[in-house]
Amino acid sequence: MTTQAGPQRGGRGARQRIIDAAVKLFYQEGINATGVERLAAEASVSKRTLYQHFPSKTAVVEEYLRHIQRTVGDPAHPSATARRSPRSRILASFETPPAAGLMRGCPFHNAAVEAADGMPEVHEIVEAHKRTYIEAMTDLARHAGAANPRLVGHQLALLFEGAAAMSTSLNEPAPWTYARKAAQTLLDDAVSRRSA
Amino acid sequence: MTTQAGPQRGGRGARQRIIDAAVKLFYQEGINATGVERLAAEASVSKRTLYQHFPSKTAVVEEYLRHIQRTVGDPAHPSATARRSPRSRILASFETPPAAGLMRGCPFHNAAVEAADGMPEVHEIVEAHKRTYIEAMTDLARHAGAANPRLVGHQLALLFEGAAAMSTSLNEPAPWTYARKAAQTLLDDAVSRRSA
Fold it and tell me: ipTM, 2 decimals?
């Protein structure tokens, strides 16, 4: 927190600081564990200012996820891997994320766990994000020559979800390596069935 | 809640009712979303009685997970599937769980998500549970004739974690079917490599 970022600052800067605080605290410390007061303090805004920008904490959670969705971009057309083969682009999903403290996995899945039977809008955002990812993997599996791209697309998304979740449960990055090898095996099997 | 189960009841019954309430509320509604007052009310005990049995809410969370661990039993030696082949016992892990409201996945993983950077003892219980499961899958993969049982064991555990997590994210049971088919493919591939 810099000395410039005091509670007196408002406008667009305040809204962005609230989202930045959410990205940090909701992801690292958890959504339910982060109260509105903590969020406001981290963003250097008053609670009143926070509620001027967001009608509720749930609205902050929704915007937090939409912000990550925009930042991550479309998994079917990631700019950094766009020129690579479909197979390379699939396997790029399983690159081990850089070590940065506690392994926290997928922010969308974590939000579904924390939302439980509350926050239905959050569940809708999570589900839409996952379905987009499954579609992207299905398209890539089709272009890679898989015999049953829909099945393989679901399985690749499942491996991604599993690597993210298991790395959270074990707090270690190793699951990403196992997931990448499993993705290779499933993809090779699906391509060989088409060729056969 | 029956009329017999009033706050005046104490002793062993109260402790069990607190665990039963935790199994219901922590799993369905979430750990952080369930306050001590709600837990005590569900268990028909006073907060004072709850704190007589457990020094803290975290202690209830730990006992909740240990209780599930005892109930689930050793995944390497499940009594119901003990006479089946290693392959059948592996695939039995991916049977679609019965529909019962919101899909909530694995209580151990969910506890890791909710614990975030707090509750270190909870993280230890979750990690130990997952490592036991990975070992069990590795043993079964070895008995099933996999060429690299350690790799396959990790991958099977990853598929289980992925099915549980994705079913939570999508709130539907379909991921279990995709995971089961992926487990078959990975296992067949590993066995064929050994035979080759």
Answer: 0.91
